[in-house]
């Protein structure tokens, strides 16, 4: 979006399915908004579905899902999140624990930003 270059302008620009929230860097998001604005007719509008996270700044891991693998091991997915309101970024850390025969055999972490 920050590289948007179209030959014409529009009365309405719609950014679907909260895809604007995939931009996790504030400066890049601002450049994208500037480019979108350049492609609006006078009096035009841009529609961007957004949300304010309700699970903000959790201090403890919360179990979200559990499941069984084909080999009988249990997978437990836990998460913790935080929001940087000035930067308008939500960070989610997920922990995937693999348990077999009552013992923890592996842990994998992933981080995402919206």
Radius of gyration: 20 Å
Number of helix segments?
1
**What structural class is derived from the secondary structure elements?**
mainly beta
Helices and strands, in order, run as: EHEEEEE
Task: Give your account of this protein's structure.
The chain is mainly beta and 114 residues long. It has 2 domains: 10-47, no CATH class; 62-113. It has 1 helix and 6 strands, in the order βαβββββ. Strands 3-4-5-6 form a 4-stranded antiparallel beta sheet, with no helix packed on it. A two-stranded parallel ribbon has the order 1-2. Strand 4 (74-84) and strand 5 (89-100) form a beta hairpin. The longest helix is centred in the N-terminal third of the chain and has 13 residues, at 26-38. The protein starts with 9 loop residues before the first strand and ends with a strand. The model has no long low-confidence stretch (mean pLDDT 88). InterPro entries: SAM-dependent_MTases_sf (IPR029063).
Keywords, separated by commas or semicolons:
114 residues, 4-stranded antiparallel sheet, two-stranded parallel ribbon, 1 helix, 11% helix
Topology:
Layout: E1 10-14, H1 26-38, E2 40-47, E3 62-68, E4 74-84, E5 89-100, E6 103-113
Parallel strand pairs: 1-2
Antiparallel strand pairs: 3-4, 4-5, 5-6
């Amino acid at each position: 979006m920050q590289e948007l270059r179209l030959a014409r302008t529009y009365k309405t620009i719609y950014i679907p399915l909260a895809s604007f929230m995939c931009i996790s860097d504030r400066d890049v998001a601002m450049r994208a908004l500037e480019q979108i604005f350049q492609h609006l007719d006078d009096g035009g509008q841009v529609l961007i579905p957004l949300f304010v996270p309700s699970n903000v700044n959790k201090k403890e891991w919360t179990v979200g899902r559990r499941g069984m693998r084909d080999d009988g091991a249990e997978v437990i997915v836990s998460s913790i999140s935080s929001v940087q309101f000035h930067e308008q970024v939500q960070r989610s850390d997920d922990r995937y624990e693999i348990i077999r025969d009552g013992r923890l055999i592996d842990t994998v972490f992933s981080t995402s930003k919206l």
